[in-house]
Amino acid sequence: MSCTEGDRKMDLIITGSSDEMSRKAAELFARRIRSNPAIVLGLATGGTPEKMYAELVRLHREEGLDFSRVTTYNLDEYLGIPETHDQSYRYFMNKNLFDHVNILSENTHVLNGMADDPVKECRDYEEAVKKAGGIDLQLLGIGSNGHIAFNEPGSSVQSRTGVVDLTENTIKDNARFFEKAEDVPQQALSMGNGSIMEAKEIILIADKESKADAIFKAVEGPVTEDVPASLLQKHPNCTFIIDSLAAGKLKNRRVL
Ligand code: F6R
Q1: Cα–Cα distances in angstroms (integers) from residue 221 to residues 7, 8, 148, 250, in the given order
Q2: Which of 19, 66, 141, 233 would you label with 56, given CA atoms 20 to 30 Å apart?
Q3: How far is residue 228's CA from residue 223's CA, in Å, rounded to a whole number?
């Protein structure tokens, strides 16, 4: 698959620092929440959004940013670890955002990694997102291998929410959050590329030099399933907010 002439690529905002990336992304989320208080957000976990969530908590506390009508759906969850596990994505979301803002817990959704039937869990999740009217604004990070959510290189452009295998690369990257690499689950439940592409607006954030290669391939490389983030070039309303280190390998640094 290659990007044909006339395709609109993602917008690009390059910030001077990781803190500025977090602030800019939080400001954009806050603006969207203010203009649509019953917004449906798609959320991500990982190291990258931590400071952005901290900024949203600050905006709630100091400027009254209201989450009382907001609904959220997270991208993914490890298979086989309970929500009480300190590395589960539900735990992360409670700790970094949900416990500190006035969101209703019944309006927050994270795939259940302990579901008896994970395939049904994923099907039901897709249905729930659809019933909620779809995702208005989706936050993404990017793996150093170009993955989005846990859609690893090679996953289909049409993939739906399902059970996925993590690559060695991702297990290695995520080992920093666990005591040892062997503790990182080998599978996860994840929204698919096709599901993510249905979001009305997408914001991808990335910082650090370790993301520079993936960002270069996603923004300036061909649209290919080998680099899932490159599929975002085809999304009609997608913005990358990245720091200058993550932008380090881009040849064309003007806003696309
Ligand atoms: C997490 C997720 C992943 C991360 C990506 C980057 O919900 O969907 O795709 O966004 O692995 O992780 P960090 O931010 O830890 O570098």
Answers
A1: 13, 14, 16, 10
A2: 233
A3: 8
What does the pLDDT look like over 227-254, one tens digit per residue?
Answer: 999 999 999 999 999 999 999 999 876 5
Report how far apart, in Å, the C-alpha atoms of 91 and of each of 95, 96, 97, 99, 143 are. Answer: 6, 9, 10, 10, 21
> Contact, 199 vs 236, CB < 8 A?
no
- Return d(Cα 161, Cα 151) in angstroms, integer: 10
CA dihedral 155, 156, 160, 161 (to 10 degrees): 0
Locus of tokens 């040892």: 180
Length of the chain: 256
State the pTM of this model. 0.96
Pocket test for ligand 1, best of 147, 168, 171 (most atoms within 8 A of CB): 147
- 147: annotated active-site residue: yes
Whole-angstrom Cα distance, residue 73 to residue 103?
Answer: 13
